[in-house]
Design a protein that fits this description.
Number of strands: 10
Number of helices: 5
Radius of gyration: 16 Å
Largest sheet: 10 strands, mixed
Shape: globular
Strand content: 25-35%
Amino acid sequence: MSNSEKINLDYNLFYCNDEQMKPRITKTISLKLLGVVYYGDPFHSHKEGSVKNEIGRLWERFYKTYSTHLNEIKQISVENNVAWEAHMQTEEYETTNEYTIFAGIEVTKPTATPINFFYKELPKTKYAVFKLKGNDFMTGLDYIYNKWFPPSKYQESHGYMLWRYDEKTKALDDPDCILEAYIPVEEKKR
């Protein structure tokens, strides 16, 4: 059973005009990811949400390699048709807008091939999971960090966040596009 299957995903879908955004808090898990990495400002050439920006190009690189090694990767893949995108803050982010992005899939163990894939095991933590409408994801993130976190009993436990993509993830401007944001959390120390 995958970590994602262990999570009860029965929570409210957030629409940005809905003030009742309620995340689902997961059990403590550690995700093991296999994929490709980008470091820099992903929006230096194209805006957020564009498939032509560095994140879109990263996913192109991932799927090109993934498709040529499909049989061996499927043997260690946790879930079919699910991909993860990690955004990891760096110390210089505030001054350069540069950070690390990891695009890949959840796996059961590391592997030596394909050679241009990297393995990343994330820290054990709980996650606040929010469902966001694709075309409003930036408004949703603003709500999470500036309105949900301050009065909640949670704070970020690590300097990264994840997007989980599955069959409900479509082009961001598609009205049926649903994104899941996973933000690592811990209870605030009182």
